[in-house]
């Protein structure tokens, strides 16, 4: 059986031992330390507020307003800086959480920080207006024009209002992703413009050496994280590997579906710290729209020479990729993502993907180490399965068990296609994978489908720690 071009003899990763993976434990420790650092910071600023008389001031209306205004401002600032660190692509956080989970935490912390910031502005101004609500707008103007740094802070608040309003679901639905992403960058401006008034009027930063170290520590950590992992590292990797497009190939797909695979090659590819299943944010220097990065997962295991991505052509990003010419230069960010050998804890694996979400699992089916029969791949597709030929070869060469489930979903509350009969979701999964609890489940596809499979797997007795998932919508 001749090998399909994409199924090359790639050295799979080292088989894990039977004990839970040390990397999984390390990631767990990172999550714990991260959460502890955030909560300790919030407790510390609250302790300083109490120690500074914050609680005792609550007995007087006017003082209570300014005191609560101070506390909400302090907590909002810590959360705002945590926001910046969360989305700075810090490798340990990225690997411990995965970007989709970080994006969800980012959303909760973002809205909380914003609401507290608004409370801070209202309470402090109202308090300075001697608790006189009618005098508050006038006081706001006075603070803006007379207090150092407040005008900048107002501008920062407006930038953050813009970011938050455009991130609300009603607005996201009506805004092109690229436009939303561009507006979201104003969050950095908003955060930066808040600093001067903290220095000049807040006094908190300067009240003691400990506070100065604490606040400057957070600010420097936030700025450094963005500069190192969102700017310097992608630039370094782009210049080091100088990747270019080598070919764009149309993939066999169902009627009306358009999928292409784009192959990239470059320098020192054997030294790129990339694993099967991971994704990159790619910018192709092919003219209009080059500045827009789009995340795509590897659809074949990295072989030390080239990378392959397979793209469902839906919007302008996909169309631009389908029209790429060999030799086009690529700016890369990444690799990112938790769908790799890293969180693996078991010898046996179950790979489940729907639609174009099968791409990282196709790469894992090639890149992961497993003995014949230890890996099962379930592909859910509406029409023709993707990579059918390649999966056949992997099945013949590596003993991968492949199950293809074709057809429309039988309902929003089921992961199965219509036509599988009356069997319930859990029994169906256990019938196909009776030893499910002994496996790591790698899962990727549309949000709702991924959510349903995860639910079913948990009901079927799979521990949460053995479920590794990624969705293609943040
Ligand atoms: C981690 C990850 C891995 C992915 N891997 C693949 C893959 O291997 N193959 C594949 O076909 N698709 C993949 N996607 C989805 C792909 O990134 C989007 O379909 C693509 O960015 C859409 O852009 P467009 O211009 O073609 O379509 P548009 O019509 O502009 O966008 C369609 C939808 O895609 C989302 N989207 C658009 N631009 C971005 C962006 N820059 N970042 C994130 N989401 C965006 C938006 O929700 C938008 O509503 C992945 C997404 C993520 C988050």
Strand order of the largest sheet: 9-8-7-10-11
Radius of gyration: 26 Å
> Which strand-content bin applies to the residues?
5-15%
N-to-C order of helices and strands: HHHHHHHHHHEEEEEHEEHEHEHEHE
Annotation, overall tally of beta strands: 11
Q: How many H/I helical runs?
A: 15
Which geometry do the CA atoms define? elongated
Describe this structure in words.
The protein has 474 residues and is α/β, with parallel strands linked by helices. The protein is built from 15 helices and 11 strands. The strands form 3 sheets. The protein has a 5-stranded parallel sheet with strand order 9-8-7-10-11, sandwiched between helices. The protein has a 3-stranded antiparallel sheet with strand order 1-2-5. α13 links the parallel β8 (375-381) and β9 (401-406). α3 crosses α4 (99-128), α4 crosses α6 (150-167) and α6 (150-167) packs antiparallel against α9 (186-202). The protein is elongated, with a radius of gyration of 26 Å. Residues 1-11 and 13-19 have low confidence and may be disordered. The structure holds flavin-adenine dinucleotide (FAD). The site of flavin-adenine dinucleotide has 22 residues, from β4, β5 and α11.
Briefly characterize the structure.
This protein has 15 helices and eleven strands.
Per-chain topology:
Blueprint: H1 22-51, H2 61-86, H3 91-97, H4 99-128, H5 136-146, H6 150-167, H7 169-174, H8 177-184, H9 186-202, H10 209-241, E1 244-251, E2 259-265, E3 279-284, E4 294-297, E5 306-312, H11 316-322, E6 330-336, E7 348-354, H12 359-367, E8 375-381, H13 388-398, E9 401-406, H14 425-432, E10 439-445, H15 447-459, E11 467-471
Parallel strand pairs: 7-8, 7-10, 8-9, 10-11
Antiparallel strand pairs: 1-2, 2-5, 3-4, 3-6
